[in-house]
Amino acid sequence: MIERAGELAGLATSALWVVSSLAFAAAGQRMGATRLNLLRSLLAAALLLLLHWFLMASPWPTIGANRTWYLGISGLLGLAIGDQFLFAGYVLVGARTTTLLMTLAPAVAASLSWIVFGQTMSLQAIVGMLITLLGVLWVAAERPHATSHISSAQQIKGVWFGAGAALCQGVGMVLASNGLRGDIDALSGQTVRMSAGALGIIVIAFIVSRMNQAQRNASARSLDETKNTAPNITRTHALTSAAIVAMVIGTLTGPILGVWCSLYALQKLEVGIATTLMSLVPVMILPVTRITEGRWPSTRAILGALIAVAGVAVLATAPHAATV
């Protein structure tokens, strides 16, 4: 057995999620957030069902209706709605800012557990939440760089999408933790969550498609009424081979390998240590942005990411909450 296997798995989780974030950001720029979320969810759900069949001798977990309900709702919120916001954030402001906003998810989960389930929060947990919020808000309030292609309005919209993703992810974490209580295998839980997320994004994709069609019809009628023969200039997304490759890479390194490593880390380490190691994405992604954005992040962005991750570490290592 490799020494420090748990720590290595935690670090590998963050590294894999960096690759997944960049791959999904690249795919989203080419095919759009909704199409990316749909294809990614269907591919991940199919792979997890096959993997579960291979390892558990059954394609669908038998975990009971109550736990399936918790995990299913968790998948709808976290993997369908939440990832829809997440991928939209990737498209608008890029992977670096969006992954930083996702550090708010543990704080959302801790707050929800306190409000809904009556779990007490230690002073250390509250301090960790405030530190994380401070780091995120400090970076989010920074104006786009002069050489950046991101406008101020686009940044504001992207920040809201990232915050929405963190909110859905935090709520999903709380629901998933209730569904995974007992002797349920983590792979079974993730299979149910991803399958429910895939069903949810099918509905979302249908609604978005109808809305886009209605918008195109309205634009066509407006052009006919004004007899304007100029082309309607809109941003289109194509399902190119590069987009498909990026989507597949993101799916393999995120919901499949990344989640697997995270579960292994949680089995081998204390939850606080594992969560901290798995929250290093905003820091690990900083050197990569030198290539993706063509420049080094600002000092403010670097310090903000370090502060946010430090806050997650303080929160994750706080004493376990107790129900009052």
Detailed description of the structure:
- This protein is mostly helical and 324 residues long.
- It has a domain at 18-118 and 150-227 and 242-269.
- It has eleven helices and no strands.
- It has helices at 5-31, 33-56, 65-101, 105-116, 123-140, 152-179, 186-226, 241-268, 271-277, 281-292, 299-316.
- Helix 2 (33-56) packs across helix 3, helix 3 packs antiparallel against helix 6 and helix 7 (186-226) runs antiparallel to helix 8 (241-268).
- Mean pLDDT is 86; it is low at 228-235.
Record keyword descriptors for this entry.
324 residues; mainly alpha; 11 helices; globular
Helix content: over 70%
Mean pLDDT: 86
The dominant shape is: globular
Instruction: Indicate the proportion of strand residues.
Output: under 5%
Order of helices and strands: HHHHHHHHHHH
Which parts are unreliable, with pLDDT below 50 for 5 consecutive residues or more? 228-235
Q: Give me the secondary-structure category.
A: mainly alpha
